[in-house]
Amino acid sequence: MQSIICVQGDDNLQSMLVGSVMRKVKSRTWKKQRYFKLQDDYMTIWYKSKKAVSVSDLEAIRDGHQSEVLLSIADEFPADRCFTLVFRGRRGNLDLVAESADEAQSWINGMRTLIENLENMGEREKLDQWIGDWFRKADKNNDGRMNFKEVQDLLKMMNVDMNEHHAHRLFTMADKSQSGMLEDDEFVLFYKMLTQREDVLRVFQAYSVDGQKLLQSDLEDFLREEQLDEIDMQPHAKQLIERYEPSDTAKLLNAMTFDGFLMYLGSAEGSIFNPQWRGVFQDMSQPLCHYFISSSHNTYLMEDQLRGQSSVEGYIRALSRGCRCVEVDCWDGANGEPIVYHGHTFTSKILFKDVVNALENYAFKVSEYPVILSIENHCSVEQQKVMAQHLNHILGDKLLKSTLEGKAPVELPSPEDLKGKILLKAKKIGGLEENFNGTVEDPQSGEVSDEDEVAEINEDNLHRESICRRIKVGQLRITFLSSIFLFPQRSTQRLSKELSDCVVYCKSVQFSNFKHSRIHSKFYEVASFTESKARKHLREAGTEFVHHNSRQLTRVYPSGFRTDSSNFNPQEMWNAGCQIVALNFQTAGEGMDLNDGLFGQNGSCGYVLKPSFMREVGSRFDPETPQQRDCYQPVISGQQLPKVNVKEDSIVDPLVRVEIHGVPMDQAKQETRYIENNGFNPVWYDTLRFTIHTPELAMVRFVVEDYDKTSKNDFVGQYTLPLSCVQQGYRHIHLFSKDGTRIPPSSLFVHVRITELE
């Protein structure tokens, strides 16, 4: 297959085709020379025994010492010879050192060109690329042709269970040259026969007069009746034909062939996610407390809470995903330098100043809206002063040091007001009022650190100990395991004025109760809760909790007993209007799927405006007793689902589970039946129906699993989005892997209807 990327005149790519010897670096002591070479497909880089890096797996290229590994060898290799390949999802980075600065720059520029080319591909180009990838995988002897044995192996790789007779019939039909081999165009024909979409063809033929094409008027009927498009139909249909129809003859007739119809349905406009809500579309001028804020817990950790690695990379990755609230746990370090790690555990340690440097470099690359730095402070006054120095020196004007316009505020500023600013959330001596009336306490006084997690975990431990004492003797060892997490009782520390002065709109306070908060709390005070405490408040006083969150910020974080860095379901906290719902970004699963789904809208800027009934101070909304009702129903088929079982002969038996996450009354799950031995083009034609009372808070999660009657089903892929962003009609759902990366061209095809119930 010919590459779709034009490389004529690109000296960098030509140089990469020749290849280079570079050092692969894992640590200060592990540096091995490897030969790296771009393959002729312009999509793969081979090194050492044909280990491969796929361009489609790369998110970015960082030049210089922009990783901890490369920083550790900065005295040995200059920055202009170093660069880092950053992979999508949670895969570790690849750090490289070239033999010269020119060679490094050639690889950096070339790799960026390849990534940019891939990102700018249209749907047809992506499909061509995917077909080419399969051809190369199946062409075992690399002769540019495929014999029937290679075709049979290909079918297994593609999750197709087809009897030999039918496979040979398709092979013979595609073999126009009658050579017993399939070449480029013949393989494309074979692929088209293999991927004949009966589900889409039925829809196409229902609106086509002759079964061969849709006239513009036919397409308009389809868009109006099925897709429920409400825009000016004539120019819209004409645009779609111009954009997606591959046949120039059909374009001249103002018509769309089946190929064009497929291209449209597989595009962003045919996606279940309404492209209108992709960019920033919400009002960004309301107070901070009126938004859900994408938030990370223990951001420095790459793994678990006990022995996991701490890394600046955690901050870079979270910020690159649109996270707008990151956390640091600060402790006294050697040589007067504060360090960051999970205290009283065996997690590794990093320097506080390195975290601040990462913030300076990456805070606003993805989103221009404010970043909140949540500090859990365990440092002495002396090292708190060092923290303040680093914040001021490194962040400069990005650090918010005073109220906007120097006035005494009466409410929190908006994300729009705070663009490009970093806010500190921490303990503060006194309040904002003292800054304007001159009554500031002794600079060395003020309580610091219950910052919540240490004290809350201790309370949870004491509660668990009392339970453990009542269990049977045979289970006694559980008591000793839990004692690992016992921490000292709450203690008071003195707070440095320099660090206190860095806190403006996010003063950390201990929560008493909602009545006390209603009378005494200030709009700039932020209370933090463990997930269990938040659930208790939600259960006992849901309306009060929502009301509290309409006036000030609340942070919720995972239980200290989640030592594996697992996540709770954030939806129940969003139901109460909690803004800063902190999750372990390093851990894939349902929690992060929901987080990615919610914050995938509004430009992925990390801020989503809460529904109006959660922002109004007089609101009496109770998530336990919602009122509105909608009916939501999808009908489902699937295409090219990825293989999940490593056994060569295994074929996926897929089923789809649709989950509704929202207020308790709306929580629901339904499954299709499973399709035996077909991961390539399974068709279910199952209809699932859900009644939804609070659509503004509802999230829809599609999960594909490989059915197994003897053990737990294997995860295949998922897609999550807010119900408010769903496009009705016939739509494709492009699936994501467990770690949150796209798995093209795996998708589901659904028909969606949402109706309002009386």
Describe the protein in words.
By secondary structure, the protein is of the alpha+beta class. Helices cover 31% and strands 22% of the residues. It has an eleven-stranded mixed β-sheet. It is globular, with a radius of gyration of 28 Å.
Q: In summary, what is this structure?
A:
The chain is of the alpha+beta class and 758 residues long.
What low-confidence regions span 5 or more consecutive residues with pLDDT below 50? Answer: 1-5, 464-488
End-to-end separation in angstroms reads 57 Å
How is the main sheet built? Answer: 11 strands, mixed
Q: Strand sequence of the main sheet, in spatial order?
A: 13-12-11-14-15-16-17-18-19-10-20
What proportion of the residues form beta strands (DSSP E)? Answer: 15-25%
Count helical runs: 24
Alpha-carbon Rg, integer: 28 Å
- Helix/strand/pairing category: alpha+beta
Gross morphology is globular
Task: Give the fraction of residues assigned to helices.
Answer: 25-40%
Task: Give the beta-strand count.
Answer: 29
Q: How confident is the prediction overall: mean pLDDT? A: 86
Furnish the topology, listing elements before pairings:
Blueprint: H1 11-18, E1 20-25, E2 31-38, E3 44-47, E4 51-54, E5 58-63, H2 68-72, E6 82-87, E7 94-97, H3 101-119, H4 123-138, H5 148-157, H6 164-174, H7 184-194, H8 198-207, E8 213-215, H9 216-225, H10 233-244, H11 248-252, E9 255-257, H12 258-265, E10 291-296, H13 313-320, E11 325-331, E12 339-340, E13 350-351, H14 352-362, E14 371-377, H15 381-395, E15 422-426, H16 432-437, H17 453-468, H18 477-482, H19 497-500, E16 503-509, H20 514-520, E17 525-530, H21 531-549, E18 554-557, H22 571-574, E19 580-583, H23 590-598, E20 607-609, H24 612-615, E21 630-639, E22 654-661, E23 668-671, E24 683-687, E25 690-692, E26 699-706, E27 714-722, E28 729-736, E29 742-756
Parallel strand pairs: 10-19, 11-14, 14-15, 15-16, 16-17, 17-18, 18-19
Antiparallel strand pairs: 1-2, 1-7, 2-3, 3-4, 5-6, 6-7, 8-9, 10-20, 11-12, 12-13, 21-24, 21-25, 21-29, 22-23, 22-26, 26-27, 28-29
Helix pairs in contact: 1-3, 4-5, 6-7, 9-10, 10-12, 13-14, 14-15
